[in-house]
Amino acid sequence: MPEIHTDPVHPVRSAVRSDETALGELDRATWSTLHAVAPRPQPPYAPFFDDCHKPEDFLVAEAENAAGEMRLAGYTRLVPPTPLACNTHVRQIQGLAVADWARGRGIARALLRAAFAAARSDGANRMTLRVLGHNAPARALYESEGFVVEGVLPGEFFLHGRYVDDVMMGRSLAP
After folding, report:
1. Residue 4 and residue 16: Cα distance in Å, rounded?
2. pLDDT grade, residue 10 (50/70/90)?
3. Which of 52, 87, 106, 148 has the fewest CB atoms within 10 Å, i.e. the most exposed one?
């Protein structure tokens, strides 16, 4: 994935191996029943990067924290949805997280827009994602960035005593 250049307020770049500790901490800090289907991570924690989750699959956003330091504020994972040659024109967002201290500052939107640019530069013309039906804030963000609901798997997950829909969303990357 190429380096992404965005405005200086919300710099987004490809992740590097040295981001692993910060990404792992961010991932654990942002775990929520609103979006997670896996149980809450427990120590000892697995590495953030592994054979299926490589640094080049992630875009990271940095922002200034309350102390005036630039810190990792969010990430998104952008990958081909399948290894099939007939599917190489599609990229899928498989995870998006923003630190609590950085919320409401446009970080998620900057990550999405950087993902669109990265996917286009990689030759993709379509973007997809999956979101839990009860995650209204994420769904609203995705819809505001051009995603539409393309399918729903009703009651796909049983989470915390109730059935939750799995919502498939997609959008064109055509200019």
Report:
1. 13
2. confident
3. 52
pTM > 0.85: yes
* Cα 114 from Cα 121, distance rounded (Å): 11
Burial class of residue 106, CB neighbours in 10 A (0-12, 13-18, 19+): middle
Q: Is 63 helix (H, G, I), strand (E, B) or coil?
A: strand
Residues in the chain: 175
With cut-offs at 50, 70 and 90, classify the pLDDT of residue 97. very high
User: What is the amino acid identity at position 24?
Assistant: G
Place of tokens 């630039």: 70
Q: Considering only CA atoms, which of 83, 23, 34 is closest in space to residue 59? A: 23
- Cα 151 to Cα 4, 20, 74, 148: the distances in Å are 30, 34, 27, 9
Question: At 67, phi and psi to the nearest 5?
Answer: -85, 0
Residue-wise pLDDT for 114-126, tens only, equals: 999 999 999 999 9
Q: Which residues contact 8 (CB under 8 A, 6 or more apart)?
A: none
